Amino acid sequence: LTEFERLQESFFQQNRLAIDQIGPGIAAMKISRTPMQEAPIKAFMAMREKLGNPEILPVCHGTALANYESIYRQGFLVPGKGNDHKVVNGSALGVGIYSALPADWRLSR
Fold this sequence. Notes:
Largest sheet: none
Mean pLDDT: 82
Oligomer: single chain
Strand content: under 5%
Helix content: 25-40%
Distance between the termini: 33 Å
Order of helices and strands: HHH
C-alpha cells in the first residue's frame, strides 16, 4: 500500500462510526474510497505534511454526479483560484468549498 492508501485505511477505521451516521438518511448511499488521480493525492499529502500532519475529519460535500470525474482528476478546487471554475450553488460564507460534519450531512445537499 502507498502512504496515501495507508492513511485512507486508518481514516476509515478511526471514523467508521461518524461515517455510518451519514447513511441512514440517504436511501442509495454507498461510501467508498475514491479513485483519485496522482496529482491531487500528491498535493494533499504535501499540504498535510506542511501543516504538521493535522487530524483529518470526515465531512460531507454535496455535488452533482457529473462533477465526480473532475474531482477525482483535479481534487477540490476553489472557484477562481487558478482555475476557470465558477460558483454554482452560492457563496453565502465566501467563495470556497463547503462541507458539513457527518451528523449534519443534510447541510451539504
